[in-house]
Write a structure and sequence with these properties.
- By secondary structure, the protein is of the alpha/beta class.
- It has a single domain, classed as Rossmann fold (3-Layer(aba) Sandwich).
- About 45% of the residues lie in helices and about 20% in strands.
- It has a 7-stranded mixed β-sheet, sandwiched between helices.
- The longest helix has about 35 residues.
- It is globular, with a radius of gyration of 17 Å.
- The protein binds S-adenosylmethionine.
- S-adenosylmethionine (SAM) binds next to helix 1, helix 3 and strand 2.
- S-adenosylmethionine binds next to helix 1, helix 3 and strand 2.
Length: about 240
Amino acid sequence: MKSTVKEIQERFDADVERFSNLYLGQQSTIDSVLNMELIAEGITRTYPKKIKLLDIGCGAGNYTIKLLTKKKDVAVDLLDLSEPMLARAVQRINSHGPTAVKAYHGDFRTVNLPGESYDVIIATSVLHHLREDADWSENFSKIFRLLADGGSLWVFDLVKQNSDELQDLIYSELYGQYLAGLDGEQYREKVFSYIEKEDTPRPLIEQLDLLRRVGFKSVDILHKNLSFASFVAYK
Ligand SMILES: C[S@@+](CC[C@H](N)C(=O)[O-])C[C@H]1O[C@@H](n2cnc3c(N)ncnc32)[C@H](O)[C@@H]1O
């Protein structure tokens, strides 16, 4: 049985510190610092004017803060399941400088948000909590509806391989080695066991196809390293 939304919330409520370091990023994900830089710089170059941003599953705000170090004219909406995460994100953004911030607390599937109003949506290390096919397609459609014309979605996430053999090699073996190299065998087992309990990642190509199916005009891959990928979809 996979974790319920409440169980996921409780785990993140107790884990704020791990998501509060802009210089290390989330180390259990591969190339987290590079992906923060790519997404923040990509948004900055794509949108020279003022933007309205939604950060879904913002955690302690790393991605939004990284963007604010490059681009000042951003109206920020944050959304997270965990109140302690949201509170930390708001506090860090406020201490970074004067920015309009609005925080939404709850499950992104059900929170009511203003339609067709965002220029940019960031969703990092969160969409892998979507479960069955309908959950993925309904919520990719929801994200599409939230974006204004010309808006875009920026994602960094754990992804699966299509073939079991490659999943074994790329995830179990090579990503496992990366985790053990960070903090030993026990750390690898700890991360693997919470992924097993909590996450239902989908293959990268499947997600890109689905984004096009729900209406996005074009998609682009920013980066892939082992079982982590970043990508963008334009409305
Ligand atoms: C792995 S953290 C990533 C945080 C941040 N995006 C980052 O990359 O640093 C995942 C975040 O998503 C939030 N989250 C998980 N499921 C969610 C859901 N269904 N709706 C909204 N937030 C969710 C968690 O509370 C947590 O703060």
